[in-house]
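Section 4.2 – Deliverable D4.2 (structural model, holo form)

The reporting period included a commitment to supply a predicted holo structure for the target in complex with D-[(amino)carbonyl]phenylalanine. Inputs used:
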Amino acid sequence: MPRIVTVAAAQLGPIQKAESRADVIGRMIALMNEAHGKGATFIVYPELALTTFFPRWYEEDRAAMDHWFERAMPDSATQPLFDRAKALGMAMSFGYAELTPEGRHFNTSILVNRTGEIVAKYRKVHLPGHVDYDGTRSHQHLEKRYFEPGDLGFPVWNFEGGLVGMAICNDRRWPETYRVMGLQGVEMVVLGFNTPSVNSQRSGEGLADRLFHHRLSVQAGAYQNSTFVVAVAKAGTEDGHHLTGGTLVVDPNGKILGELDHENDGVLVVACDLDDTRFGKETIFDFARHRRVEHYGLITERTGAGAPLGR
Ligand code: ING
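Output (structure tokens):
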């Protein structure tokens, strides 16, 4: 019996600073309606889906950035999205900036089941960029200023009849992200991203390189852990700053099943048979048979690179 999950990768085009939550929620609902019409039962939106990518803006007073964060989920602005999802029987995942009652700031994503209940939360572990204003860069990338590293690890949940995990943006570049979920049997990783199309420290590295590294990272993670990966962009030019597109779905063999070729709002709907993950998990990436953990110690013993073990 195939275990088909018909997933919609719901890309958002640019969100300008001036756009309201209501504007964005309206766009997200339109994408959900389109996804439903195309047979999707699980919709995945980008990282920080409710706002512009505000970590590009420096603010001395961090509290002045709190208006980009959500104190409650859902609240009056986001409730219409949850209501529409429940009405359509649509499961969903999206990213947002989370401000906890204790005053902690995270780059967060959630899984919401078909009855509109939040059943899982993930907080971005790998925060790129820097804490302080860096005048040497062509643009700022201040995630380390505005967010704490995630404190929930990389869990995998029983969701939509399979084993589903979450990651966020820069997480997709780190093999540890996928392997920790792979060691829980993950069958589908869903992640959103906001990727500036120019490297702020290497002007020669532009859109083509960014898309190459994006695809390379996601395809490798999928193949090496025999899992589907759904990667969803916030794309286009936000207040003069360009973000890559590259919304795509990768199968457990690392093959790209589909990719959006534009930078606007749009959905890519793919029927994923989670049983297609079995072959890889039972042969080449049968971790129990093949891994040799006695040789992997440095991976958790060292944070940064250190002295070589040989001479
Ligand atoms: N954005 C970028 C990303 O990892 C980045 C930051 C781009 C880091 C390219 C390194 C290289 O896709 C976020 N939001 O993590």
